[in-house]
Amino acid sequence: MHCFWWDKSVELELGETGKYRDVKSTREAVECLLLRWPQRDWRALAAAKRTCLQALEGKVKTEKARRAFIKAAEEAHILIRSQ
After folding, report:
1. Do 40 and 14 meet the contact criterion of CB atoms below 8 Å apart?
2. Residue 18 and residue 74 in contact, taking contact as beta carbons nearer than 8 Å
3. Region of residue 5 (left: phi > 0; alpha: psi -120 to 50; beta: else)
């Protein structure tokens, strides 16, 4: 079974200021997008959810899901410490 790990993790500030989360896989990204995202109605967020779920189904590459996740974070003005 495919693990959906990313070649490079994305470390971003979610929740409290100064608290970072290191997202290492498409599964972790989906959890963040669905349960921890500060804004719920942005276009890039919807696209990232869709792309990540497609990656979990094996329909798109995990790198595409990672890029969509980063774009959603940028749109939501979430601080990204490493990408």
Report:
1. no
2. no
3. beta
User: CA 56, 58, 59, 65: dihedral to nearest 10 degrees?
Assistant: 50
Q: What is the pTM of this model?
A: 0.91
Name the 3-class secondary structure at 43: helix
Q: Which pLDDT tens digit goes with each residue over 47-63?
A: 999 999 999 999 999 99
> Cβ atoms within 10 A of the Cβ of 2, count?
9
Residues 6+ apart with CB under 8 A from 27: 4, 56
Q: Tokens representing 55?
A: 């990656």
pLDDT digits (tens, 9 = 90+) for 16-25: 788 899 999 9
How far apart (Å, rounded) are the C-alpha atoms in residues 33 and 51? 11
Per-position b or e across 64-81, b if 16+ CB within 10 A of its CB: ebbebbbbbbeebebeee
